[in-house]
Amino acid sequence: MAKKQMGLGRGLDALLDDLSAGTAEQNGVTEVSLYDIDTNPDQPRKTFDPEKLRELAASLKRHGVVQPLLVRKNGARYTIVAGERRFRAARLAGLQTVPVVLTDAADDTLMELSLVENIQRENLNPIEEAAAIKLLMQQHDLTQEEVSDRVGKSRPAIANALRLLSLTKSAQAMVKDGRLTAGHGKMLAGVTDPKQQTELAKTCVERDWSVRRLEEELRFRSMPKKRKKPVEPSAEMRDALGRMSAELGTKVELSGGEQKGKLVIHYYSKGDLDRIYRAIVGGTD
After folding, report:
1. Torsion of CA 210, 166, 135, 16, to 10 degrees
2. Quick check: is 247 catalytic?
C-alpha cells in the first residue's frame, strides 16, 4: 500500500510553507554566502538553459533574490533543498550572498519536496521530468494517481511522461536536447523494436517530421502491405518548402507528391494570418 505523508497532497507552495514556517520563526530569513552553499547531488535536473539563467540573473541583479532558497545545514555548510536555479543565477549575477530559510525536515520529506519542486517549477526537459516522476514513485511507493495529485498534472500526463523512459538511449538524447518533442517521444515509445525506434527518431530529426507526420508513418507501417505508403517529398520539394517557409515567416508543411497533395501553412494569431495573406496575394486590402 502507498505511504501517506501529512501535508504533501496540497501542492508545492503549501509544502514549502509547512517546511519553512517553524524555522522562519526561530531563525528568520538569513543571508548566507554563496560560497557556503552546496547543490544537492540528488537534484533530478541535470541541465539548465543558459539563456534562461542569464535572464533570471539579470532580474536578480536588478531586484535581488525575492524568494529565499530553502536549505539544510550540513556541518558548517548548507545544502540546497529547493532553489538551485536561483542559486546558479545568483552566482551568474555576481551576488555574494542569498537569502535562505533553514529546514530540518526528515530526509524522505526533503526528497519529495526537491522532486516536486523540480517537476512543477524548474522546466525540466521531458526525460528529466519522467525520471523525477519515476524516482518520486519509487522513493515514496506512490501510484500514478497519487503523483498526479502532488505535482498538479493529470494521470494520463504522468503515464505519457513515464513512457518516454522506454525509449532507446539515442532517442532519449534527441528528446533531451530538443531535437524531438515529448509528442514525438510518446509516439516512438509505441515502437517495440529498438533499432527501428532509433532509426525513426533519426528520420524525424533529419527530415523535420512533425508529430502528425510520424503518426502517419507509424499508421502506414501497421497497415496491410497492399496499402500505399505516404508519398515522401523529393529533395527539390523539400527545398521549395524551406524557401516558402522562410519567405512567409512561418511553418509550411506538405502532404503528398509533385502531382497531388496538400499544402498546410501555419498561423498563430489573426495578425499573423493577415500578414501571411498579404504576403501571398499582395497589396493591403
Report:
1. 10
2. no
Question: Which helix or strand (DSSP H or E) is residue 252 part of?
Answer: strand 252-256
Q: By C-alpha distance, which of 245, 248, 246, 243 is closest to 280?
A: 248
Nearest Cα to Cα of residue 120 among 140, 147, 139, 146: 147
Per-residue pLDDT tens for 79-92?
888 788 889 999 99
Q: How many residues does the chain have?
A: 285
> Is this model's pTM higher than 0.70 or not?
no
Catalytic residue among 25, 31, 84, 206: 84
First-to-final CA distance of the chain:
67
Among residues 156, 91, 80, the alpha carbon closest in space to that of 118 is found at: 80
Query: Which residues are within 8 A (CB) of 256 and not within 5 positions of it... i.e. 6 or more apart?
Result: 231, 262
Alpha-carbon distance 122 to 125, whole Å? 9
For 101-129, how does the pLDDT look when each residue is reduced to its tens digit (9 = 90+)? 888 766 666 666 766 766 765 567 888 88
Q: Residue 121 half-sphere exposure, CB side, CA atoms within 13 Å?
A: 15
Q: Strand 69-74 vs strand 77-82: parallel, antiparallel, or unpaired? A: antiparallel
